[in-house]
Write a structure and sequence with these properties.
With about 400 residues, the protein is of the alpha/beta class. It has one domain: TIM Barrel (Alpha-Beta Barrel), CATH 3.20.20. Helices cover about 35% and strands about 10% of the residues. It has 16 helices and eleven strands. Strands 1, 2, 3, 4, 5, 6, 7, 8, 9, 10 and 11 form an eleven-stranded mixed beta sheet that branches. Helix 6 crosses helix 9, helix 7 crosses helix 8 and helix 7 packs parallel to helix 9. The two termini are about 25 Å apart. The structure holds iron/sulfur cluster (SF4).
Amino acid sequence: MEDARIVRHLHFDTSTRPFLILFELTRACALACRHCRAEAVPGRSVDELSSAEVCRVLDDLGAMGPPRPRVVFTGGDPLQRPDLDALVQHASRAGLSVAVSPAGTPRASAASLARLRFAGASGVSFSLDAANEHVHDAFRGVKGSFRWTLAGCRAAARIGLRLQVNTTVCATTVLELPALARLVSELHAGLWSLFFVVPTGRAVAGQALSAAETEDVLAFLYDISTSVPLKTTEAPAYRRILVHRSQGTVGPRPGNLYDRLHARLGDVWPEAERSGAAVRTTRERDGRRRAPLAVGDGRGVVFVSHNGDVQPSGFLPQVVGNVRDTSLVELYASAPLLRALREPSALGGRCGRCELHAICGGSRAQAYARLGDPLAEDPTCPYLPEDLVTVSSR
Ligand code: SF4
């Protein structure tokens, strides 16, 4: 159905081997972000995994042999852990590719980033939610965060760390996306990762986008993806748009938000507006887009919290076990919820009937947060699968 150049598949069995471990080392953070999944707090928790416990998990992952999972140390702010450099070094020596996701604070100095690089980190990711200092700082809850974040991004590039920029997409930030696209491009980020707010943690439902708004944003992202390499998190229906556009299927006319985003793009980045694909699609343009991986919560990706609890994702707070009791490798392969999340036939509603569920599968976190069932259809996707169109037109 889909073209391998449009959406990439892993070349190993994700039922026994994760691709990406999101490892929350602490919930301590100096920022006070409005939407924080981790509900981060100023101080470190007494039940954080110790250095030895984290290293044991890393050793288990390393012992899997190639292709070993990638590890992202996140938080909270992982720079609040005094043992961070040692943990990065341990991961690297275990044969794991390791990246760090620091908070945009003075701790993310050029010196601390250089130490991470020296310890073996291959990349860092910073959160930027607006190209405007006041909007970003208000969103992150601390004045100065925008400036510290930009300084961290530029230092990472100088030091030779691969840079990823993360953006939370929600009601407050959505109209910042055009200006952010330009800023991300100017920072020479290797990847722009757009996190669609899941109403969990501090994020409230009023901040999350509706299905129609999500569709508009995804269509806009498709258009500019020739200008900036990007991926979406908790909005995998972006892959459906990629596949459909590559087949010349434009889909329903996007709505008002799509038009507003393009109007803003024309103001802040007119060069991108001219080079964007807009709603005209060709295979030649698709060849220049970054092809996202067909992975998802529990399906190649797994989350370890600061106290060792294992979840399909940080945005899907269903604990399937704890690394203090059971090895992460074993939990990933055998936990019933994770197994169900990897089984397309277990999905309900439209996602279960969708001809694209193997490459998309819907956001399991959005389904859980909004419908209370991680296997339900993704309520942020308005797509009516071909199967159901056929049934309804009979
Ligand atoms: S219906 Fe579900 S599987 Fe199909 S595109 Fe939408 S979110 Fe993805």
